[in-house]
Amino acid sequence: MKEKNYRLTRFDSLSAQIVLWVGGCSLATFVVVFLSMQYYDLPCFPIVLAVISLLILLVVCWHIVAYYLRPLGLLADSAQRMAEGHHDERVPDSGHKDEIGQLQNNFVVMQHSLSDYISDMQQKREALSQQNEKLQAAYEQAKEADRVKERFLSNMTEQMTRSVGSITTLTETVCNDYKNLSRADMVKLQIQILNDTETVTLLLQKMLDAK
Amino acid sequence: MKSLSTYIQQRLTLQLGLLILLIVGVVFSIFLSYVFYQTRRYAKQQAINHATLVLDTTELHINAIMDEVEAATTSMEPLILEHLNPDSLLAYSRRMLEQNPDVLGFTIAMEPDFFPERGRLFSAYSLRKGNSIVTINENNYEYFERVWYKTPREQQKGYWPEPYIDEGDGVLTSSEYNYSYCKPLFDSRRRIIGVLCTDMLLKGISEAVTKIDAYPNSSAIMLSHDGRYIVHPDTAKLVRETIFSDPDPQAQQDVIRLGQSMLAGQSGMQQMIVDGQDAYVFYRPLKRTGWSIAIVCPASDIFHNYYQLLFSVGTIISISLIILLILCYQSIRRSIIPLNKLALQTQHITEGHFEEPLFPSQRQDSVGRLQNSFIRMQQSLHKHISEIRRINDEMEKRNQELVRASQLVQEADQQKTAFVQDISHQIRTPLNIINGFTQVLSADYHGIPDNELSDIITRMRSSAKSLNHITRMLIVSSTTDSERLNGEHTTFSCNALCQEAISSIIPMNPDTVNISVKTDLPDDFMIHSDREALLFILGELLNNANKFTQQGSITLACSQTDTQTVTFAVSDTGIGIAEGDRERIFTQFTKVNNFTEGIGLGLSLCQRTATMLGGDLVIDTSYQEGSRFLLTIDIPNSHI
Fold first, then answer.
1. Are A154 and B480 contacting, i.e. CB atoms less than 8 angstroms apart?
2. Phi/psi zone of residue B280: left (φ > 0), alpha (ψ -120 to 50 degrees), beta?
3. What is the side-by-side strand order in the sheet with B277-285?
4. Last residue of a domain, one of A39, A68, A83
5. Angstroms from A74 CA to nearest CA on chain B
6. Does B424 touch chain A (CB under 8 A)?
7. Measured between alpha carbons, how far is B617 from B569 in angstroms, rounded to an integer?
8. Residue of B nearest to A56 (CA)
9. Are the Cβ atoms of B320 and A29 closer than 8 angstroms?
10. What are phi and psi of B629, to 5 degrees?
């Protein structure tokens, strides 16, 4: 309502129609009045006056229709800007209650709701993105820890394999030669096996502690 | 009233239509007011001209009548002067009436004592009575002081006295209103010797004036010197009433003003109310007598054409405005139909539906432009919002995947811990057996019977094998995926591998189960792969078969499927695997039967390892007699 610079140059079929109707009816009226004045033998009015009145009428009607349709242009511009990506576009409330006013008010409500919706979505997007970063970091960390642990286990396993190999070999020796070996040798073998067993148990304990 | 104004406020069509109507109406009114003002002035001027003309004509007419009377009177003068004797005067008086049928009466009144023989008074008077004429000498009628005798005598010229009714002072009286022309009679020495008086019926002039028909409803009046009505449409007012005795107090002032103007001998026009009607009175004096005539013209007559025009123009304008209203209403209504649809659409969008399609408008006006902009906006919004939604959905999915992956990593960690626990538990039994029996053997074994000794040896060897297997499992499982990919591959004989795998297991039912290797490959068929890993897989598969087979056979078959792959098949005649469990057995820590010993990690570890080696481990579902596992290994440029 406050903006006065509504466009008058834009062609509008409604304005044109209205102007056509007003012009036609007025012209017809003037002609009939003219003829009836002649019929009643009265002096006729100056044609110039009629033409001036007609012009004034047309201009005023054109302006009035343009004024009434101005919110439509406003809305069209706003919709166009929204189409171009300006989603926080705002149209002022209409003071009117007619169809155009209702449309404008609906439009205002829509713009508010849309803007809220879009900013909600964007907030959600940011939240998700932040969450994503955190999760990514946590995942990397977990993987890294896993890798460290794996390397540790691998290392322990390697050590254990040696001891187990030793035990297997010694056991085989015991099984094959227990009859030929001296008691002292047997005790030495037994102690070696025991030592290796302890090493294995220790390594396993380390691995268990490592979790 | 309030609801009506609300109704109009909610209807653009009515608002705009009525506003346009109002404006057109105002401009029409201004324009036509001017036109009608001019026309009315013109009509009035026309009326004045017309009335003036009529009055002129009437005056001429009256003058003609009076001229006639004067001429008739004057024509008698020479005869009378020639024969100045009472008898001839009587005769002339009579002849006057005979010659002029319009004349009502004629008097030749002589100066006192003009005919001494006839007494002091002599007046020869003739009067028309019906068709006959009566002529007498009114010698007992004192006429010297009468206006009709006295005034012309004093003025020494012809005189028209006020009209009167002769109420009969004289012998002969007329009962009708009449008027007279009186003229002094001069002798040859210009001495007044008498007065001639011609009486006329007022009817003559009255008719002439009444005949004036300036307008269909106009009427005429004529006033005498003192304001009495000489002619008036209401005959009751004639002579007796003056213009000043009008009883109507409303009209009085106007009438008095009119009377004064008329008696002052002015001519002009005055607007006033006559008989409750607006009227224009045109008046002018009659110069000869000093009387005044006026025409009363009702305004409705004067402005008859004007009013007719007003009426027809009013009708025309009403019709034209109604047509205009209808046309505008239709135009506006048609052009705002899409607006209601748009308003609904906007509401839809407000409620979150962006997809509702709208058809583009072909119209070039504001409404069409709005509709098309609106469609573009809707499409853009739809695109934008679904883009955001898509991104959000993807992000959400990725987050869920991350959570799951993190969970998997944690689970794997837990599994490793569980695995280590399991291993440390499993490894104790063979270690204890070995240590225990070594201690027994190193102490004193001579007291032990031979069969017991051989049992001890068998159990020690078996423990050593299971210790090896467990360690191998540990190696395979602890090898990281990357290490395994780049793991040390060696070239070795395929058949030797199979023999080693077979020898690594201790048959559980050596008497009822036949364990054998069936190979299609030559002994020098070499493959390049991770030997330890393959050994572990085959050992695990054979161990499983060993565990679940009570009798029959366990076969490790080895064949080349094509140039690129070698397949190891481990078949048994054991309890087999139920169809429902086939999927699950490759999952970590799944034991089909909880009571069976083992560390549930086996098969899944085998499958993972096989995949890492570029092969695959599957269950042969077509095999019915027990279970058969197929291990396929890629052998790129390997053999020999």
1. yes
2. beta
3. B229-231, B219-223, B292-298, B277-285, B268-274
4. A83
5. 9
6. yes
7. 10
8. B27
9. yes
10. -110, 135
Burial of A179: CB neighbours in 10 Å, binned 0-12, 13-18, 19+: exposed
Q: Is B385 on the interface with A (CB under 8 A)?
A: yes
Q: Which residues pair with B133 in a beta bridge?
A: B128
* Partner residues linked to B127 by β-bridges: B105, B134
- B195 forms beta bridges with B109, B184
Interchain proximity B396–A128, CB inside 8 Å? yes
| Chain A residues touching residue B354 (CB < 8 angstroms) | none
Please answer yes or no on whether B316 and A102 come within 8 Å at the CB atom: no
- For B10, which of A61, A98, A131 is closest by C-beta distance? A98
What is the tally of structural domains in chain A? Answer: 2
Q: Which residue in the block uniquely carries the two structure tokens 């402005």? A: B303
pLDDT one-digit tens code per residue, B372-394: 888 888 888 888 888 888 998 99
Smallest Cβ distance to A110: which of B350, B389, B467? B350
Q: How far is B366 from chain A (nearest CA, A)?
A: 6
- A67 assigned to some structural domain: yes
* Minimum-distance CB partner of A168 among B389, B391, B464: B464
* Residue B196: its H or E element: strand B192-201
Answer whether residue A126 is part of any domain.
no
Q: Which residues of B touch A190 (CB under 8 A)?
A: 435, 438-439, 442
Digit-coded pLDDT (tens) for A17-52 = 888 888 888 888 888 888 888 888 777 777 888 888
Clarify whether residues A1 and A79 are in a common domain. Answer: yes
The CATH number assigned to the domain holding A158 equals 1.10.287
State the average pLDDT over residues B190-210.
Answer: 83
Provide mean pLDDT across the span B235-245.
73
> Can you give the pLDDT at residue B59?
86
Give pTM, 2 decimals.
0.58
Residue A92 counted as domain residue: no
In angstroms, the first-to-last Cα distance of chain A is 74
Chain A positions in Cβ-Cβ contact with residue B417 (cut-off 8 Å): 208, 211
**Of A83, A110, A129, at which residue does a domain stop?**
A83
Q: Go through the domains of chain B in sequence order and give each one's CATH number.
A: 83-205 (3.30.450.20), 354-478 (no CATH), 480-634 (3.30.565.10)
Categorize the per-residue pLDDT at B590 as very low, low, confident or very high, splitting at 50, 70 and 90. Answer: very low
- Pair (A145, A76) in one structural domain: no
Q: Which of B305, B343, B406 sits opposite A40 (nearest CB)?
A: B305
Q: Is residue A121 part of a domain?
A: no
Structural domain range at position A30: 1-83
Give the end-to-end CA distance of chain B in Å, rounded to a whole number.
111
Within 13 A of B50's CA, how many CA atoms are on the CB side?
A: 19
CA distance B437 to B452: 11
- Residue A143 and residue A78 in one domain: no
Residue B159 is given by DSSP the state B
